[in-house]
UniProtKB/TrEMBL annotation, chain A:
Pfam families listed in its UniProt record: CcmF_C (PF16327), Cytochrom_C_asm (PF01578)
InterPro entries the UniProt entry points to: CcmF_C, Cyt_c_assembly, Cyt_c_biogenesis, Cyt_c_biogenesis_CcmF
Family (UniProt): Belongs to the CcmF/CycK/Ccl1/NrfE/CcsA family.
Domain Cytochrome c-type biogenesis protein CcmF C-terminal per the UniProt entry, residue ranges: 315-635
Protein's UniProt name: Cytochrome c-type biogenesis protein CcmF
GO molecular function: heme binding; heme transmembrane transporter activity
UniProtKB/TrEMBL annotation, chain B:
Source species of the chain: Poseidonocella pacifica
The UniProt record lists the keyword Metal-binding: yes
Domain CcmH/CycL/Ccl2/NrfF N-terminal as annotated: residue spans: 4-145
InterPro entries per UniProt: C-type_cytochrome_biogenesis (IPR051263), CcmH/CycL/Ccl2/NrfF_N (IPR005616), CcmH/CycL/NrfF/Ccl2_sf (IPR038297)
Annotated protein name in UniProt: Cytochrome c-type biogenesis protein
GO MF term list: metal ion binding
Family statement drawn from the similarity comment of this UniProt entry: Belongs to the CcmH/CycL/Ccl2/NrfF family.
Cellular component terms (Gene Ontology): plasma membrane
This protein's UniProt keywords: Cytochrome c-type biogenesis, Heme, Iron, Membrane, Metal-binding, Signal, Transmembrane, Transmembrane helix
Domain of life assignment: Bacteria
Summary of the function given for this chain in its UniProt record: Possible subunit of a heme lyase.
Length: 654, 156
């Protein structure tokens, strides 16, 4: 019964979405307040209906209702409760329902927080947002209905893919979707502004918090996914340039570009046309990502049950929304005249450089991701584009970005003086070079990546410090820092996060140690500075798996460091083995141990890694997200954001 | 079903490089690891043979090591494998033929972007500042400012 109600709620939401995407748009055009006012209650109703529908599906998973086809295919009565719940979105249909839930949540929050928008703009934003709902609800109902019943319910389900039976699944997709779908707000604002025919500083101020929120969630989602892969897949890789990873990375890059260009719109009323285009493209890449993940045209380790018919449907959605928005853009871009004037050396031009690097690097990732498809269709070549390509073609852009970041941060708006920049950044530059030299001297004969990463990381971090120091003014009054706007702190924190991540990646790649060997019980062996001893290997039965668990003591200079318990699991229902690496997390290094197969001649295969500074990669990402939150809490977004048309003029041109 | 088989292959016995594969010569082994990191496991979804647990990946790893021990250079080893399995096996695509589009796309796009940005910025730095206020706007502005100073609403 609850299932049928959930299904019904989904259909109702589809109807509401159709109304919401048409009526307010006409109302805004004709200036009819009554019609425009439909948008707000409709957005709320849509959200509540989808939330109910999602709750109904969750109920079916939690109670193991095997009359539902989706539950049979992805659940099992013995599965732990956490995975019964997260299993709701561990499959195509359920995850799409989560997608739509978040989409309507954003729509509803635009209704809640949009009180200070001009009524016509608000009505149009909500209508465009709802048009996206219509498309995805149609997709859900007509090709991927999660509420289909089985004629003859089986006694038990087929279980969830064991790799997905991990707390990572509980958090990684929801955050990612919050990010993907959050970009729909930027899209809706861009399209509404194009229909409205006006883009000004106030628009920049309205669209930025939504972009910022989407970017924060994407950052967290990507970091969680990377960390999950690191501990789950058994060899400690953190980024694979897999098409599905790229699908989340491309919108992230464009969202980062959009964040920065929206600042220019807000403070200087320039780059308007470009910012609108970015807002459209960022969501476009979200849709492309959805297509890549769910259509199956590009092979990837992310095993969604794919279906070509669905791919065509998403392609259609992509064509309609991108085609429509870009046509509108082409027709209306001319009206967006820029106002601010700036010199070649200025904060504006640094932000333009930032946008070029981010957008072109996104383009490189895009070309690399779809190239196998293009090469096969157009040139009849079956080829692969893997990590070696991306490392070569993409990394230079990130290095350039890290190099210009501190420079851009200290440049002043409109017209800057190079001399002042050199003066402000002389210490960071010296420090970066000196530390890199020191590291290089210490690690003779190894790759240059380590020292280079140190130089970049230190340059970015010290650059942030120098920027803050410059903000204390001539009096070197530190209390001034406390009075800096939150957005400035957000920038400092987010930029340091990037520095930390850059350093972490370089350090891990440069100094990782690996050891593969056959180990006998109680026979110690050495890896790096550590001595490991395999004490025991035991077999036991988990709730829905069989486990082989090793006990490995680790000492350093005769002192006990830790005891690790790496596992090998077999999930009988899915007939699938997994490795559960045991990791001793540390600030300076991770010890990463994997147990392999029992050898014919006795003993066990054991793989040991020492991964220096591994956690810095994700710590940096989380710090970036934290910076985003700080910036989001800036008072200019909370207090009468854009209530006055001339708001942009009040911001001092620092 | 095909999907399940793929998964089984993907997860196989839970180990990539096995201890018995490792060569005694650390320099040779290092080269073997480098090469196998750049070769695709043909039956997996998107993994190099260095990371994969599939039996075929193991065979390929052993083949790479065999060639290296036989005295082949890195390039010769890769060529040997490519000859037998096609360029699909290369994770780093070749630069020849239509692939120049792939490799050239990034730099070309960067050049175009830089050119556009330079044109745009030249326009920005020489373009006139926003049009000056009209007399009427000026008068209204004075009114608003005067009212703001005394904290009253402007008489309209």
């Amino acid at each position: 019964m609850i299932t049928e109600l959930g299904h019904f709620a989904l259909i109702l939401a589809f109807m509401v979405a159709i109304v919401q995407s048409v009526v307010p748009l006409i109302g805004a055009h004709k200036r009819w307040p009554g019609w425009m006012a439909v948008a707000e209650p409709a957005a709320n109703a849509q959200f509540l209906l989808i939330a109910f529908s999602f709750a109904a599906l969750t109920h079916a998973f939690v109670t193991s209702d095997f009359s539902l086809r989706l539950v049979v295919a992805n659940s099992h009565s013995l599965k732990p409760m956490l995975y019964k719940v997260s299993g709701v979105w561990g499959n195509h249909e359920g995850s799409l329902l989560l997608w739509v839930l978040i989409l309507t949540l954003f729509g509803a929050s635009a209704a809640w927080f949009g009180g200070n928008l001009p009524p016509t703009l608000r009505a149009r934003v909500l209508a465009v947002q709802s048009a996206i709902s219509v498309a995805f609800l149609a997709f859900l109902l007509f090709t991927s209905n999660p509420f289909l019943r089985m004629a003859v319910p089986p006694f038990d389900g087929q279980d969830l893919n064991p790799l997905l039976q991990d707390p990572g699944l509980a958090f990684h997709p929801p955050f990612l979707y919050l990010g993907y779908v959050g970009l729909s707000m930027a899209f809706s604002f861009a399209v509404a502004a194009l229909i409205e025919g006006r883009v000004d500083a106030a628009w920049g101020r309205w669209v930025r918090p939504w972009t910022l929120a989407a970017w924060i969630f994407l950052t967290i989602g990507i970091a969680l996914g990377s960390w999950w892969a690191y501990y789950e897949l058994g060899w400690g890789g953190f980024w694979f340039w897999d098409p599905v990873e790229n699908a989340s990375f491309m919108p992230w890059l464009l969202a980062a570009a959009l964040l920065h260009s929206a600042i220019v719109v807000e403070k200087r009323e320039s780059l308007k046309s470009w910012t609108i285009l970015l807002a459209i493209l960022a969501f476009g890449f979200s849709l492309i990502g959805t297509f890549i993940v769910r259509s199956g045209v590009i092979t990837s380790v992310h095993a969604f049950a794919n279906d070509p018919e669905r791919g065509v449907f998403i392609l259609l959605i992509l064509a309609i929304f991108m085609g429509g928005a870009l046509t509108l853009y082409a027709a209306r871009a001319g009206i967006m005249e820029a106002r601010g004037v700036f010199g070649m050396v200025s904060r504006e031009s640094a932000l333009v450089a930032n946008n070029i690097l981010l957008a072109v690097s996104c383009f490189v990732v895009f070309v690399g991701t779809i190239w196998p498809l293009v090469a096969e269709l157009a040139f009849d070549r079956k080829l692969s584009v893997g990590p070696p390509f991306f490392n070569l073609a993409f990394t230079p852009f990130m290095i350039a970005l890290a190099i210009i970041m501190p420079i851009g941060s200290v440049l002043s708006w409109k017209r800057a003086r190079l001399g002042r920049v050199i003066h402000a950044l002389r210490f960071p530059a010296l420090l970066a070079l000196a530390l890199a030299g020191l590291v290089w001297a210490m690690q003779t004969g190894r790759s240059l990546m380590g020292p280079f990463g140190v130089a970049l990381g230190v340059w970015v971090l010290a650059g942030v410090a120098a920027d803050l120091w410059a903000r204390t003014g001539r009096s070197r009054d530190l209390s001034r820092l406390a009075r800096l706007p939150r957005a400035d702190w957000g920038k400092a924190v987010a930029h340091s996060g990037l520095g930390i991540t850059v350093f972490g990646i370089a350090a891990l790649l440069a100094w990782e140690e690996e050891d593969i060997r056959v180990v006998q019980t109680d026979a110690p062996f050495t890896v790096g500075a550590y001595e490991l001893t395999l004490r025991d290997v035991t077999q036991f039965e988990g709730p829905n798996y069989l486990s082989t668990m090793a006990e490995i003591d680790i000492t350093r200079d005769g002192r006990a460091v830790t005891t690790l318990y790496p596992e090998k699991r077999l999930y009988p229902v899915a007939r699938m083995p997994t490795t559960e690496a045991a990791i001793d997390n540390g600030i300076l290094r991770d010890l990463y141990v994997v147990i392999g197969d029992e050898q014919v001649g006795g003993g066990w295969a054991v793989r040991t890694y020492i991964k220096p500074f591994a956690n810095w990669i994700w710590a940096g990402a989380i710090i970036m997200a934290l910076g985003g939150f700080l910036s989001l809490s800036d008072r200019r977004y909370r207090i009468a954001a854009g209530a006055r048309r001339s708001a942009g003029a009040e911001v001092p041109a620092e | 079903m095909r999907w399940l088989v793929l998964l089984l292959l993907l997860a196989g016995p839970v180990f990539a490089v096995q201890p018995d594969e490792v060569l005694d010569d650390p320099v040779l082994e290092e080269r073997a690891r480098d090469i196998s990191g750049g070769l695709r496991c043909l039956v997996c979804r998107n993994e190099s043979i260095d990371e994969s647990n599939a039996p075929l990946a193991r065979d390929l790893r052993l083949l790479v090591r065999e060639r290296l021990v036989a005295g082949d250079s890195d390039a010769e080893t890769v060529a040997f494998i490519t000859e037998r399995f096609g360029e699909y096996v290369l994770l780093k695509p070749q630069t020849g033929g239509s692939n120049w589009i792939l490799w050239g796309a990034g730099p070309a796009m960067l050049l175009v972007a830089l050119l556009l940005a330079a044109l745009y910025m030249r326009g920005r730095s020489t373009g006139a500042e926003a049009a000056p206020l009209t007399a009427e706007e000026e008068a209204r502005l004075r009114k608003v400012l005067a009212a703001g100073d005394s904290g009253k609403t402007p008489p309209t």
